[in-house]
Design a protein that fits this description.
Strand content: over 45%
Shape: globular
Largest sheet: 7 strands, mixed
Number of helices: 0
Oligomer: single chain
Number of strands: 11
Helix content: under 10%
């Protein structure tokens, strides 16, 4: 059974940083592209960052230069370091592996 458990969300001031983690189980993690999505209130879920099994990363324009996604295939985890956070970054952040989603973690950027 595939499980994805996100952690690391919270309240942060504009310009601050957070580090999200996603712990995966129930599948061969090292072979799967892992993604981070976000869904702001009243908006559609959108792709923020992605990392292939080989470690190649890609980012949405709205996070380029500020977010960094990485993975540890030995620990079955994917993380996303988020720097220079903006109020419009307030959203629930989800980890995705193929067709499976985590439950999400809330990130609120506010002073």
């Amino acid at each position: 059974q595939v499980q994805l458990v996100e952690s690391g969300g919270g309240l942060v001031q504009p310009g601050g940083s957070l580090r999200l983690s996603c712990a995966a189980s129930g599948f061969t993690f090292s072979r799967i592209v892992m993604s981070w999505y976000r869904q702001a209130p009243g908006k559609q879920r959108e792709l923020a960052a992605q990392i292939t099994s080989g470690g190649t990363t890609s980012y949405a324009d709205f996070v380029k230069g500020r977010f960094t996604v990485s993975r540890d295939n030995a620990k079955n985890t994917v993380t996303m370091q988020m720097n220079s956070l903006k109020p419009e970054g307030t959203a629930v952040y989800y980890c995705r592996a193929a067709v499976s989603w985590g439950q999400g973690t809330q990130v609120t950027v506010s002073s």
